[in-house]
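Handout, section 4.2: multi-component inputs.
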Amino acid sequence: MINDIIELITQKQYTKLKAILSDMEPVDIAQLFDDLPERYMPLLYRLLPKESAAEVFVELDSDTQEMLIRGFSDTELKDVLDELYLDDAVDIIEEMPSNVVKRIIQHTAPEMRHSINEILKYPKDSAGSIMTIEFIDLKEDMTVRDAFTKIRRTGVDKETIYTCYVTDRNRVLKGLVSAKDLLLSEEDCVIADIMEKNPISVNTMDDKEDVARALSKYDFLSLPVVDNEYRLVGIVTVDDAIDVIEEEATEDIEKMAAITPSEKPYLKTGVWDTFLQRIPWLLLLMISATFTARIIAHFETALQSSLVLSTFIPMLMDTGGNSGSQASVTIIRGISLDEIDFSDIFKTIWKEIRVSLLCGVVLASANFAKMMILKEAALPIAAVVCITLVCTVFFAKLVGCTLPLFAKKIGFDPAVMASPFITTIVDAMSLFIYFNIATALLHI
Amino acid sequence: MINDIIELITQKQYTKLKAILSDMEPVDIAQLFDDLPERYMPLLYRLLPKESAAEVFVELDSDTQEMLIRGFSDTELKDVLDELYLDDAVDIIEEMPSNVVKRIIQHTAPEMRHSINEILKYPKDSAGSIMTIEFIDLKEDMTVRDAFTKIRRTGVDKETIYTCYVTDRNRVLKGLVSAKDLLLSEEDCVIADIMEKNPISVNTMDDKEDVARALSKYDFLSLPVVDNEYRLVGIVTVDDAIDVIEEEATEDIEKMAAITPSEKPYLKTGVWDTFLQRIPWLLLLMISATFTARIIAHFETALQSSLVLSTFIPMLMDTGGNSGSQASVTIIRGISLDEIDFSDIFKTIWKEIRVSLLCGVVLASANFAKMMILKEAALPIAAVVCITLVCTVFFAKLVGCTLPLFAKKIGFDPAVMASPFITTIVDAMSLFIYFNIATALLHI
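Output:
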């Protein structure tokens, strides 16, 4: 595909190229830019049909956007900006260096400039920062006919016209009417009679993840955003909610793997940035492994007299680590999905106790059989290893299920707090248990 | 909240209860059932306003649904079934035991029964299994006025009316018209003139994750599902896509933590089922740790002569494991989000080589300083540990980034194949490197 495009460009077959582009979805065109040599980008962009140029622009990555903006004439820049929806404009501005931002702000219409500044003042992860202020607001005394006239006159973005919001004179949110309700009602009906009262809404300062979760829970296409006086200031649409849900899952996964989350895709993050995302956790976890070294050093005499004990250290640590992270990861995801909260702690502990005993006994039996069959160690050593297994799995699951809940309770992020540390804690714990049982049972 | 409800039930304050319920969203009412003692459930359900009873029913968990169905009279069952949307009915049926399914099928209208059987025949993770067959299909020669008449007459579910699909006599998909386009067009316009041709569609047998990903990528509210002859058979709506996206992220997270995925929330899964989700992986990974035991046993003489080497085993293994899973988890998530595929393997390897050398050198320096300051070991031992660190991080990241890509290439699930095994592979590797460097450098 991309090679065909480059060939057409170099052969100056612009009419053919235009025809191909006009049949493509904006997001697919934007993907072409990913693989296109930079020198062809401005040319390809100028070949786009006017109506889709802005849509393509929104989907480009921010480096390409910046490059294009720097090459735009003032008229070209104005053309793009005039076509942008407000929330997209804000997204773009947030990624640009300040001199580019200045140029953008200079070329937006005064009304839009005002709105952009409004949205930019909301905190990064708030509902306010992802909302759009383009929506249809109706009044209670309008008829269905008036509503249709208003929709036709406003003609805003596709996600935003299917739920209309009803406000009073002070812009206080009173109700909502779906486009479906409007279509199924008589033209003379009054909005107040068909609207749904007390609609579910979110506050501008609510966390955007909670907003996305609510949209997903109620299966809405949009959710109204109100300020502290319950005045309607914007709406969050379902397509933005999906982005938040995907970002949030990626962030959780990264945190659980001891990576500082980034918003950029892997292939577009530089080596240095990737290094910075990873090194703090590796350093912290490496240093915290000093404990395990200390524990082994402490039991050096025991180890000296029965060196075979050392061969089972990796297995015990890994099984403990795996058991613990099975529990912690399940609980962390449950917390993220609002399925589990701190009040479930006793239910959770009781369940993990039973699961851990089942797992521990099965693992210990299997391991005992393996050690006997492969003649890996004498009977007393095998007993020590297997008893340690049961205890390690038990405590690992207990730590794994409680740590995320406590982290959440005291206001820390469970994914960051709990997951990377589970292995370290469980390692230290399992070695401690192992050597204590060994010294007691083997009298060394 | 739930205590107030129970109090009202026991005091037989049904009018008050009804008033409260009529103001609540169906999904919130369904959450009440989670905490309600079973004996009150049928009563509470019967107090629901008729129009929302079916919506609440859909949101209940399957155990509660089953319990209620068993208690329903035939008329009550029919009332619920008549109000259900087809895709919801299919979801419910898929969770029920066969005798309940039989009773449900008996009481559905013949046409719906036929459609249910149609959908049930699609494979579990296919587009066909999550689609709904309730959609608006228009013909090319209809006018906008005809279209509105058809929408009013059909009056289907909210997500499904906002994108209307245009088919020919053979039901072959020709185009789409959004409700917005209809509203903004003159009543006499012909559909063929305003419809978008060549709409993006999916096949009934496509993976539901790909369908959800496409809906999210294109910001559509629904996506048409066609059969091999390109005939329109159903649509997938955005609310179902969100569910798929959340499920998929949960599944990936579970697989990466060596858990067999389940569709039930943690608190609703029994102890035995949770045990079964976890034990196979724990067993497999425990057995595979036999390698590490063998490696240590092999180098027993080296260890005997320099026992302090053993104290650094946990730190080396953990740092290797963490480094490896940082890389593998990033790549696995990138594959899931369609950001990375096998053709990026050289780019990925080259990047990880540079990141791993940066990480390795920083970690080794920090560790060397720590070992010297805390006097944990003599200089030669410190040198062995630090060189091992650099090598381990290097190979761990290399394995971590390539394994998921190869798994994907040969058709295995990267999350299952790669993540749980990274630790085991890296453990064995780091021990092997450690002892080889130690024997070479320390002449033991």
